[in-house]
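Supplementary Methods. Inverse-folding protocol.

Structures were first reduced to a discrete structure-token string of length 453. This string, shown here, constituted the complete conditioning input.
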């Protein structure tokens, strides 16, 4: 082949306007292999797919009741993390990671802590009002969940799913996922709407489903002639990549054509009567429904990337089901000497831990391959701060659950020394998911990917 090149935006084109995007090929000048052409690296043992899930909560924690005691492999969970004791061998308590980028750029502490939770890069300038006369725009980079979805999202019906629990407004404090700079993805707060979107094909009557199938075109058939012309131009390595890419597309098309099979672990949850998700008192019911939907979406392989955001940054909402009438944000800003506030914040964070444990249990209860869905998932609990009353973003309280197909070593209290940015955590998570990444977010804060295996 003589100096042939191909645009990185090239597509296969066919009759009826059908188009199919191509993977990164050597002929395009991309000698670093296309990750999507190597699906095995995104799978655990037995070829089961890996998943990545974010569980996000606001306003920091009470570290004296969060931090374990003991050693890395022999540790005791404190009061806040006690709900995780039955799952101790399935978790990594990650201690010592700093959100260093969130000390820089526009915005107040809550705007930075939320917008940079998953992006690890500074916010843009903007008009969202914050405390102390400060303001900010959206985050200025892609979030880690979406970076992972960019690689594995074409393998499933939904590239990612974003769930919310009483997340209100449209501002930097109510978004954690970003497709790119200033491209926030709103979470879905309504379990009924989420159910209809995710499981409509599974619940429709056979006649309606057949109509949908008939309306879908098999794209590869439409672009077959263009493919035959292209394959003659590329080298052997590109041919392997191209064939693997087309095989993956064909697999998706066949699943769209036949629908997701009901039975086994894939059973859409029964919603029943759904309580109003716009009422604060219904947050516990809404949250459980959203976690049920998330778990089943993974079990049915409708997505491999998901997040659930519990209320907003700096939320003023109370916790009536815990007999706490004050707002979370107001309590978090009281001093360390306010023992009543410290106790209520401990109760709130313990409750959030119970919800995290519920999601772990849901994923553990779904058999898959030689283990469970949890075994093939990287689930991480993220907070916007370490401590609320001084907006400390050092030593953010992270908890990881699941082995990601054997790539994560669990049953540990992992203490990370020195100033280690959460950029390294996210590049480490990408590596665990099978995606080569040396840095993530703003490279200024990166050292090297955090080893989780």
């Amino acid at each position: 082949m003589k100096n042939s090149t191909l645009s990185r935006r090239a597509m296969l084109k066919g009759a009826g306007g059908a188009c199919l995007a191509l993977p990164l090929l050597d002929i395009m000048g991309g000698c670093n292999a296309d990750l999507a052409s190597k699906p095995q690296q995104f799978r655990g043992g037995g070829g089961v797919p890996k998943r990545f899930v974010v569980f996000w909560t606001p306003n920091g924690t009470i570290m004296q009741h969060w931090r374990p005691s003991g050693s890395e492999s022999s540790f005791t969970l404190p009061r806040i993390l006690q709900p995780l004791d039955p799952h101790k061998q399935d978790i990594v308590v990650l201690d010592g990671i700093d959100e260093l980028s969130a000390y820089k750029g526009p915005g107040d502490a809550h705007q930075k802590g939320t917008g940079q939770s998953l992006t690890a890069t500074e916010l843009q300038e903007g008009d969202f009002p914050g405390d102390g006369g400060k303001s900010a725009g959206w985050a200025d980079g892609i979030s880690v969940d979406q970076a992972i979805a960019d690689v594995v999202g074409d393998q499933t019906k939904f590239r990612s799913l974003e769930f919310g629990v009483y997340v209100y407004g449209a501002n930097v404090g109510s978004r954690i996922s970003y497709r790119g700079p200033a491209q926030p993805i709103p979470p879905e707060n309504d379990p009924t709407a989420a159910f209809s979107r995710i499981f409509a094909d599974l619940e429709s009557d056979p006649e309606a489903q057949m109509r949908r199938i008939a309306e879908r075109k098999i794209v590869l058939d439409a672009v077959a002639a263009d493919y035959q012309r292209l394959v003659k131009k590329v080298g052997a390595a590109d041919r392997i990549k191209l064939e693997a890419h087309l095989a993956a597309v064909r697999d998706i098309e066949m699943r769209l054509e036949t629908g997701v099979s009901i039975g086994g672990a894939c059973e859409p949850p029964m919603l029943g009567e759904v309580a109003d998700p716009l009422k604060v008192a219904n947050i516990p019911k809404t949250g459980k429904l959203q976690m049920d939907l998330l778990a089943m979406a993974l079990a049915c392989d409708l997505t491999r990337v998901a997040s659930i955001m519990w209320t907003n940054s700096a939320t003023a909402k109370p916790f009536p089901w815990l007999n706490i009438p004050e707002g979370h944000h107001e309590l978090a800003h009281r001093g360390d000497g306010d023992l009543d506030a410290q106790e209520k914040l401990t109760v709130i964070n313990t409750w959030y831990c119970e919800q995290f444990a519920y999601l772990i249990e849901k994923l553990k209860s779904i058999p898959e391959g030689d283990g469970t869905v949890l075994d093939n998932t990287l689930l991480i609990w993220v907070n916007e701060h370490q401590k609320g009353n001084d907006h400390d973003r050092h030593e953010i309280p992270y908890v990881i659950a699941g082995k990601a197909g054997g790539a994560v070593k669990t049953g540990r209290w992992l203490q990370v020394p020195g100033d280690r940015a959460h950029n390294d955590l996210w590049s480490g998570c990408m590596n665990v998911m099978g995606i080569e990444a040396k840095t993530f977010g703003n490279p200024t804060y990166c050292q090297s990917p955090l080893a989780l295996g």
